[in-house]
Write a structure and sequence with these properties.
Blueprint lengths: L7 E8 L2 H14 L4 E7 L2 E2 L2 E2 L3 E7 L3 H12 L4 E8 L2
Antiparallel strand pairs: 1-5, 1-6, 2-5, 3-4
Length: about 90
C-alpha cells in the first residue's frame, strides 16, 4: 500500500467463533485504537440468541506500517480472517 494519508482503508474482519476469539480481537483493536476511525459490528441475532460468528468493519487511518501491523495481529488469531479494500485518491 502507498502512503495512507488520503486513502480510504476499509478492513473486514470475519470472526468465526465469537466466544473464543472476541477477547483476543478486542485486545488488538484496543491496542490499535488510534488507527480506527469507524467501527461497525455485524452479526445475526435470531430468537434472542447471537450468532456464533460475525463481521467487524473498520475504517482505518495511519501509516502503512501501522495498518499492516494491525492486520497481521488480527490474522495471527486462529479462526480470524481479514480482507481489506483501499480506495486511493
Amino acid at each position: 500500500m502507498a502512503d495512507q494519508r488520503d486513502d480510504h482503508i476499509i478492513l473486514a474482519i470475519h470472526v468465526t467463533d465469537r466466544v473464543e476469539q472476541a477477547s483476543s480481537v478486542q485486545a488488538v483493536l484496543t491496542n490499535c485504537g488510534g488507527n480506527i476511525k469507524t467501527r461497525i459490528g455485524l452479526h445475526e441475532a435470531t430468537n434472542g440468541a447471537a450468532s456464533p460468528n460475525g463481521v467487524i468493519l473498520l475504517e482505518l487511518v495511519g501509516s502503512d506500517a501501522q495498518v499492516q501491523a494491525l492486520i497481521a495481529s488480527l490474522n495471527d488469531i486462529v479462526g480470524v480472517e481479514t480482507k481489506n479494500i483501499v480506495f486511493g485518491h
